[in-house]
Amino acid sequence: EAGVAQSPRYKIIEKRQSVAFWCNPISGHATLYWYQQILGQGPKLLIQFQNNGVVDDSQLPKDRFSAERLKGVDSTLKIQPAKLEDSAVYLCASSLAGVSYSYEQYFGPGTRLTVT
Amino acid sequence: AQSVTQLGSHVSVSEGALVLLRCNYSSSVPPYLFWYVQYPNQGLQLLLKYTSAATLVKGINGFEAEFKKSETSFHLTKPSAHMSDAAEYFCVGGQNFVFGPGTRLSVLP
Lengths: 116, 109
Description:
The complex is a heterodimer of chains A (116) and B (109).
Chain A (H helix, E strand, L loop, with lengths): L4 E3 L2 E4 L5 E6 L6 E7 L6 E7 L2 E4 L8 E4 L6 E5 L8 E8 L10 E2 L3 E5 L1
Parallel strand pairs in A: 2-11
Antiparallel strand pairs in A: 1-3, 3-8, 4-5, 4-9, 5-6, 7-8, 9-10, 9-11
Chain B lengths: L3 E2 L4 E5 L4 E3 L2 E2 L7 E6 L5 E7 L5 E3 L5 E5 L4 E6 L8 E7 L4 E2 L3 E6 L1
Parallel strand pairs in B: 2-12
Antiparallel strand pairs in B: 1-4, 3-9, 5-6, 5-10, 7-8, 8-9, 10-11, 10-12
């Protein structure tokens, strides 16, 4: 079974530039998550999708971050404009259908973003 | 606010020794708790999860955790550490999948 795919794996940009990350979840997983993991910290949930609808985006900085999940499969996370403090690893995860906190999540390898 | 705390950002044990990684959660956290492991340059991997079926949960690689509601704890243990256990361990729980800050486990030869 293929795992969660993410691209790119690494990205270096200058502040005020824009960047986009892509995620392809495990086939059949209706729920998709984006996390931000700053060095030395645990991941922080940014946004959660159930199919193509947003379940929770309370911790997403909406002035600069946006995410979409067209057709309920792939998802993109965008930052525009980037700030230095956005330097982090961005993780995508997926889980089986249902907004239940008992479902385990499967994580992708992450995208390491460096903002200079 | 829901929170998950992990006592000790870095734990060192000798190979063959007991591993104990501590996790406490706030009482407002729903009783769905997980332990994830992150090996260097790899993605997060589920070790085990608690979903109220049994208080003692067995996971992969010989790890287990015990849910203690009275202590709001979900500590992770392994009887005998192996060099390959060196990694970052995260306790996760509740709504919004709150991650603890993580504990880095080092295993000394």
